[in-house]
Amino acid sequence: MQNKNEITLEKHGAVMLLDIEGDITAFSEPFLNDAYKNANDEGAGKILLKVGNGAYINSGGIAVLIQILAQTKRNNQNIGIAGLSDHFQKIFKMVGITKFASIHNTVEDGLEALSAG
Amino acid sequence: MITTNNNRSIEITLANQLGYEQVAMACSACFARLYGFSKARIEDLKTVVGEASVNAMQHGNKGRPDAKVTVSMKCDNETMIVQVVDEGGGIKKFPPKPDIEKIIEEEELITGFGLFLIKQLADQVEFKQVVDEGHTVKMTINMKEQV
Q1: pLDDT tens across B81-114, in order?
Q2: Which residues of chain A does B100 touch, with a Cβ-Cβ cutoff of 8 Å?
Q3: For chain A, which residues make up each domain, given as ranges?
Q4: Cβ–Cβ of A66/B40 closer than 8 Å?
Q5: Interface-testing mutation among B104, B107, B120, B147, with chain A (most A C-beta atoms within 10 A)
Q6: Interface contact A95, partner B, CB < 8 A
Q7: Best mutation target, B47, B51, B107, B121, to test chain A (most A CBs within 10 A)
Q8: What is the Cα–Cα distance from B24 to B43, expressed in whole angstroms?
């Protein structure tokens, strides 16, 4: 029952978009780490994570995302997250993720905000 | 296995395998919808059911493939009462409230988010150990969100 993620990297000017397909759980760790490493190898200073519409995110997935946030902080990168439902926007605020990543309703909003920042 | 009783209650027995918590989450959403829970409260319910089920599988049953997790739900006019039962010995020591700033600075381990979310989203949470029956997490979700 291990979920897999397909993560596509797209460069939009100064922002690297990581488009995450699939649920985000503890099983997402190797997929997200690989994608983040690839973004780093491309010299990304600004990263936008796009979560799939209706994706299931549990506490294991939140832990994986926090590991990525820790790495972006160490590497002085700006990171945003787009595509979250209202429920997961609430959860991410509750957990404190919003202290380390900006939250955007759409990819377009995220790209615009990160590009300007 | 899903059993529907005639007293506004339902019981689901899950295999002790990660991923099956989503079956219980989907059932809880359908069940709550029948009784008019709002979309936001259904999302809260799904999260607490999922997190409690994953905790039961991983920490209660310690990943044993022969173990089971039982999720029962009962709805009255105002609340949904969810009980998640595993075959383990209960929580010996509750993890502290996760501090994301300390976690980011690697001063604290990443742990306790599941329990944190349950406590934040449910209106009432109880932990109960019954000899020879296992450990139960009982969560109450009010139909209307507390403002």
Answers
A1: 999 999 998 887 888 899 999 999 999 999 999 9
A2: 66, 95-97, 99-100
A3: 6-116
A4: no
A5: B104
A6: yes
A7: B47
A8: 13
Please tell us whether the domain made up of A6-116 is placed in CATH 3.30.750.24: yes
**Mean per-residue pLDDT of chain B:** 92
Nearest CA-CA distance, residue B99 and chain A, Å: 8
pLDDT band at B7 (very low <50, low <70, confident <90, very high): confident
Domains and CATH numbers, chain B: 2-142 (3.30.565.10)
Question: Is pTM, for the whole model, over 0.90?
Answer: yes
Q: Contacts from B40-43 at CB under 8 Å and sequence distance 24+?
A: B40/A86, B40/A87, B40/B145, B41/B141, B41/B142, B41/B143, B41/B144, B41/B145, B43/A85, B43/A86, B43/A87
pLDDT at residue B79, rounded to an integer = 95
The tokens describing B108, both together, are 């604290």
